[in-house]
Amino acid sequence: MNTILSTLFIVLAAGFVISRFLPVKGVQNISGKELKSIAGKKGKQFIDVRTVGEYRGNHMKGFQNIPLNELASKANQLDKNKEVIVICQSGMRSKQAAKVLKKLGFQHVINVSGGMNGL
């Protein structure tokens, strides 16, 4: 019985870890290099989902700071029909942010893979 429970736990844990790295359906991923070519363009919403402290320490010009833990409650400040580009430090939180935005009905969501580390 313990072996079955242990195996089940390992399978569930592995599934959870793997799911964190799978792409989010309907979200485009771009590199830091690709971001630089579209940064500052009109008609796009640039969101940095890092903490306020991280954002103050270093951020890209034109990005608005909405920390990931506040994104769902502040999403009404964004236009669901305009492209939203999300960035964080490594690309993990921005991926989560992209998932949140898609669930809230945002149509065009782009995640910067590698985040600020990839610039």
UniProtKB/TrEMBL annotation:
Signal peptide: none
Entry keywords, A to Z: Transferase
UniProt key word Zinc: no
A Pfam family per the record: Rhodanese
Keyword RNA-binding: no
Gene3D superfamilies: Rhodanese-like domain
Origin superkingdom: Bacteria
Name of the protein this chain belongs to: Rhodanese-like domain-containing protein
Lineage: Bacteria, Bacillati, Bacillota, Bacilli, Bacillales
